Amino acid sequence: MAAAETARGRLAPLAEEETLSLGERAYRRLRASIVQGMLPPGGKISERGLATQLGISAQPVREALQRLEQDGMVITLPRRGTVVAEVGPAQLAELGRIRAALEGVAAALAAERLEAGALAAFAAILARMKAGTETADHEALDAANEDFHARIHHATGNPFLIRSLGSLRAYDHLGRCRAVGSMPRDLPRALREHQGIVAALRRRDPTLAEARMRAHVLRSLVTNGVLRPPRGKRSP
Amino acid sequence: MAAAETARGRLAPLAEEETLSLGERAYRRLRASIVQGMLPPGGKISERGLATQLGISAQPVREALQRLEQDGMVITLPRRGTVVAEVGPAQLAELGRIRAALEGVAAALAAERLEAGALAAFAAILARMKAGTETADHEALDAANEDFHARIHHATGNPFLIRSLGSLRAYDHLGRCRAVGSMPRDLPRALREHQGIVAALRRRDPTLAEARMRAHVLRSLVTNGVLRPPRGKRSP
DNA sequence: GGCTGCCAACTGCTATGGCAGTTGTCCATG
DNA sequence: CATGGACAACTGCCATAGCAGTTGGCAGCC
């Protein structure tokens, strides 16, 4: 549905960057700054300082910080200051398990109310993934993976779910730096898992889709090093 | 832990109402107004109008509306207005399933990092529940139920989980008006489920706690009428 | 009558200024 | 030297004013 269809008689839409509010832009930028390491954990940040640094007023910055606090990335002590939250391995693991559960529910909902046309889009993404797996193109695989999950999120049509998973995905980029790049032997496994999820979607089986999605996210977190392998597995 | 301990040498804390920011107060008030029926779905609301109505500035109102939008309770069209979102039975069911999944994860995390002293508190809550069940005191049962879940949420220590479940709980009050009061025969079942969850916590079994908690929430949603009974059940 | 274009009254959004509370520093005092 | 208190430099929080974009309606024209 979101395929490139140029509508006749309508002007071209603005570059997405221009149409967003300053608060939204500040939110994304600050979030990226946190997960990428600048704005280190424990570092103090102030509304006015960031405002002058970003060239905007203090109000949008305040809104951005408030959203970041809801995400758990900063904590503000009233009248005392705002500091970047320290997200240790333990918390990262918790957030990963939360994300796995939510992704599972999203897959279940998507399986129920998926329109027929969307299946073609998933097939296309699977094709991209297969090509990326054979050539070991990590960038392309990452992009396809993003598309895959984002499309499932939006297929649910649930704004709460979409927003929550969007926030949780940010932490994903944070945990990835500890184990850069998946093991080559894990790429085919991820591909099979994605194929299995799409198969469950095509079968309109919410329970199966949820189970497969949740297992996929959990295993992906294990190979990324943010989760320990569950007990009772083969690992020397 | 949250039991009434008066700390020596410190002044008595203010009434919670006084220490909260105006934005936080506006958020809670507006959320309550929405779930209770005033501010009907589809109704337009404006920052300035609410500001004068609440006797505060437009800025805290704006923050409150932004949080409400993240919860999915209002949707604001840029430069056009803000309207109360219509939460139909279908969306209510989705949110219920999301809440069930998150409550399950919360129970699992609580089972892992529960300190020994907290078990006594759960035992006390169970006692209150048992008494309320025998006398069919719905108000006391509701209060005990709130305490039960809130304590589990805080036992996880995860701010993201706490905040998300707090937002989702608001919808719970919205769906309850369609089936006022549980069936009398369902009260003992709820009690048994709560006891089973506490038993899993005491056993430090995350998997069991999650399964029981999730099943409990789902069944509770079924008896409240927001969720249809799963296929393959005895119901004429 | 039906359509076009303009104008006033909204809307959300941002900038500015100032409030109250906290903290760190520096000087006066015991 | 150690201690206490006041001042200045912060902080987050809130109120006010004005911006830009949207909408409804009314006058004017075809």
Oligomer: homodimer
Q: Outline of chain A, from the CA principal axes?
A: globular
Q: Tell me the CATH architecture of the largest domain in chain A.
A: Up-down Bundle
What is the CA-based Rg of chain A, rounded?
Answer: 20 Å
Q: Strand percentage of chain A, roughly?
A: under 5%
Side by side, the strands of the main sheet of chain A go 1-3-2
Distance between the termini of chain A: 47 Å
CATH superfamily of the largest domain in chain A: GntR ligand-binding domain-like
Helix content of chain A: 55-70%
By CATH reckoning, the class of the largest domain in chain A would read Mainly Alpha
Number of helices of chain A: 10
Domain HTH gntR-type (chains A, B): 20-87
Pfam families (chains A, B): FCD, GntR
InterPro entries (chains A, B): GntR_C, TF_FadR/GntR_C, Tscrpt_reg_HTH_GntR, WH-like_DNA-bd_sf, WH_DNA-bd_sf
Protein name (chains A, B): GntR family transcriptional regulator
Task: Give an overview of the whole structure.
Chains A, B: Residues 20-87 form the HTH gntR-type domain. Chains A, B: It comes from Neoroseomonas soli. Chains A, B: InterPro entries: GntR_C, TF_FadR/GntR_C, Tscrpt_reg_HTH_GntR, WH-like_DNA-bd_sf, WH_DNA-bd_sf. Chains A, B: One of its GO terms (molecular function) is DNA-binding transcription factor activity. Chains A, B: This is GntR family transcriptional regulator. 2 copies of one chain form a homodimer. In chain A, helix 5 (89-112) crosses helix 7, helix 5 (89-112) packs parallel to helix 9 and helix 5 (89-112) packs antiparallel against helix 10. In chain A, a hairpin with a 3-residue loop joins strand 2 and strand 3. Chain A contains 10 helices and 3 strands. The first copy, chain A, has helices at residues 16-19, 22-35, 47-54, 58-71, 89-112, 116-135, 138-156, 159-175, 186-202, 206-224; strands spanning 44-45, 74-77, 81-84. The termini of chain A are far apart. Chain A folds into 2 domains: 20-84, Winged helix-like DNA-binding domain superfamily/Winged helix DNA-binding domain (Arc Repressor Mutant, subunit A, Orthogonal Bundle), CATH 1.10.10.10; 89-224, Four Helix Bundle (Hemerythrin (Met), subunit A), CATH 1.20.120.530. By secondary structure, the first copy, chain A, is mainly alpha-helical. In chain A, strands 1-3-2 form a 3-stranded antiparallel beta sheet. Chain A binds chain B through residues 21, 59, 63, 66-67, 70-72, 75, 78, 91, 94-95, 97-98, 101-102, 104-105, 108-109, 156, 158-161, 163-164, 167-168, and chain B through 21, 59, 63, 66-67, 70-72, 75, 78, 91, 94-95, 97-98, 101-102, 104-105, 108-109, 156, 158-161, 163-164, 167-168. Chain A binds a DNA duplex (30 and 30 nucleotides) through helix 4.
